Amino acid sequence: MRFHYWFVFLYFISFYANAEDKARVLKIYHDSDYSNHRASANAMKMGLLTALAEVNNQVQGYQLQLVEKDHRGNSNRSLLHIRQFIDDSDALAILGGLHSPPYIKYRNFINENGVLLLIPWAAGGPITRYPDGVNWVYRLSIDDTKAGFTLVEHAKRALKCKSIHTLLENTPWGKSNDKTIRDAAGVNNAPAVTWFNWNTQLNSAKIMIREILQSDADCIVFVGNALEGSHFVNAMLSFPKELQIPIVSHWGITGGNFWSSARTALQQGVVLHFIQSCFSLRNYKRYPRAKATVTSAQALFPAAMKNIEILPAPTGFVHSYDLGRLLISALSNTTLTDDIKHNRAALRDALEQINLPVVGLIKTYEVPFSTWSADNDDAHEALGLADFCMAKYDDDGGVVLLPQLNRKLNDKSVIK
Known about the structure:
This protein is an alpha/beta fold and 416 residues long. It is built from 13 helices and 15 strands. It has 2 domains: 243 residues, 3-Layer(aba) Sandwich (Rossmann fold); 161 residues, Rossmann fold, CATH 3.40.50. Helix content is 40%, strand content 16%. A 7-stranded mixed β-sheet has the order 8-7-9-10-11-14-15, with helices on one face. Helix 2 runs parallel beside helix 12, helix 6 packs across helix 7 and helix 9 packs parallel to helix 10. The longest helix has 22 residues. The radius of gyration is 23 Å and the shape is globular. The relative contact order is 0.14. Belongs to the leucine-binding protein family. Keywords: Signal.
């Protein structure tokens, strides 16, 4: 009989302990493409986890957990994850992935349902610009309302291009870039455009490149991801050297297995420059914060981070780390409760009130976010034109920043 009572006592102790443990967990969903662009997904995951490790993955007694959610590049699967998030009483925020289309397509649903979405990669301009109510989306990444200006400026000034031809992914992401690039080029210099679909293969890429080379184009501005990007670069190599023209690319190519697929073409002289934020892991030893971050990351992920200077999709790590630092800062000014909707809303508000400097890898963030309005449509963008640089791959696959052009960073018309 005493054994029976002792068993019941232990059962209830265990039950309440488990219930308490469950109530003290906060999840961060990572809605990303772990199937086709695994390099970028892993880089983002490791960046955020490195930042969270600095506070021992805890805040106010809650354990912070990252939950992988593989959308496989499918917007409908991304929506499924968003719905799961809404119904999960432990889910605090979603860390977005590489692809812009899901967040453009479902932007209204995200904001109408109070889904706190943090973006370390997807660059589509409309993602952070919700005009009809409280805005729940915050980004620390390239912003396509500005990226096109940097791409066109580099093509014109650094590469002396007179006739730009754009090669754009036929998605909402590509279309948002088309508008920005046209604005950057100017009304009288609108570039010709070729559209391509996801999963475009090498033979189709060769046909498109041949048609561009037969025009008067002297450079290509490319917006696409790693798979298609590698095919276009390899297609360029298939033509005689004297016919080849430079490719100025969006940073989407850096999110997958691009380097290993395009290495031969790049090493044999195909010119490829791409936009990214102004920090390279190639240079981490120069900066105390970066050295400490790399040391921590290598302890957490010894195999993946062994050769961090050639880490695949490196800016995924950099952006997620910096975004994680901002998240921690905002959480320190949030009173958490057992009401997850309250926690999401309080954290959303706290992100707009970070007013103490937060040291990241790219820069020190003074006031990274503010209240969004139509007159302040960069309010949820932590990075701006001054933080965007051009880069290229070194012979070992590491990313090397190119010299920045002197420009009036607050005047987009300077490059028209």
